[in-house]
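Hi team, as promised in this morning's meeting, here are the two structures we talked about. I've kept the exact order from the run log so nobody has to guess. The first one is mostly here for context; it's the second one we should focus on when we meet again. Sequence first, then the predicted structure tokens.
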Amino acid sequence: MSVAAARGLSDPTVGNTPLIDVSPAFPELGRRVRVLGKAEWANPGGSIKDRAGWFIVREARESGKLSGDRVLLDSSSGNTGIAYAWLGARLGFKVSLAVPGSIARRRREILEAYGAELLFTDPLEGSDGAIREARLMLKAEPGRYFYADQYSNPMTWRAHYETTGPEIFAQTEGRVTHFVAGLGTGGTFVGAGRRLRELAPGVRLVSMEPDGPLHGLEGLKHMETSIVPAIYDETVADAKMSVSTDEARGAARALARRGGILLGPSGGANLAAALRLGRDLCAQGREALVVTVFPDSGERYLGERFWAP
């Protein structure tokens, strides 16, 4: 029996987050186009990454890959690491993470508060540098670690296939016409997209990524210049969009000041893409219900470059 079990802590409840209609903050969408976002900060660890983190941890525990004194090892830009860290604290296993040195200060403080062991990598190498470091750590001590490998672990996309996709379908009563999501691991877009296509065959799936390799959209990948995650399937997308850091920042600021909702960088980018799509559909006289995800709250980034004046 684990320490957590002995204390009577139950397995966590992840998912079933609210779907927020942000259209009233953007009257240029007209009356026939709505844009909605999943408020993923409502998860126990404050982000969408709780979904994949819990699926990865649950499968590893059930299969015996994360047992005894094994340490969960992975790379993370912050939120997946936070998911591992609070799960480790609750369920009784240790967590070791390779993270870019550019990680937001508040996320670093959260990771340290949960007791995760952190190894910082070159900020200029971003998430790819952290991936390489985690692989080196595993190679040096293979018997010490369970390598969660969120970028290759099928549980990353499976979490969204099993939870995010069905939730969106149910919350929109099957009326979702477009799903837009940014690419980091690719798990959200691939998993939710695959399930939505099964549930609503007419849905349009639009992937989004930063407009270049040097960007301020923490958690997102410019696929052409990055290590492409093994779980990413580019055939899922019906269309692709790119968003600049400035466009994402502008969308996030607009929602904060018109709608009273704070988004992080990836949420701002998802919103910017959904709004651009929505405006195009409005101009065409189309009726549409565009759904995206807001991976975390902007509160974790206040004082950081993205929210700096």
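And here is the second protein, the one for discussion:
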Amino acid sequence: MFETTLRINHAAGLHARPLAAFVKLARGFDAEVQVENLTSGKGPVSGKSAVHLLMLAVQQGQQIRLRTSGTQAEEALAALVSLVERDFESGTTA
């Protein structure tokens, strides 16, 4: 299992376009992805489910914890961290 904590800096938080980019990337890996909103205490939920991620209501400035496990866990975590750190800009491939 791999894990890290990140701050969401995108103005929309983890909603709409950022959320869609996150889910699309997460689904590209043979790994379980769990996301928890550390600020609100909500989660963990599957990072491969847009509906579950929406329930976390992650807003700009809040911290999330990402946990990955499985065959491609390390690669998935690195790619998702990169996506978040780039404020969900496209260009990452799985």
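Starting points for discussion:
The chain has one domain: 2-85.
The CA atoms of residues 9 and 26 lie 19 Å apart.
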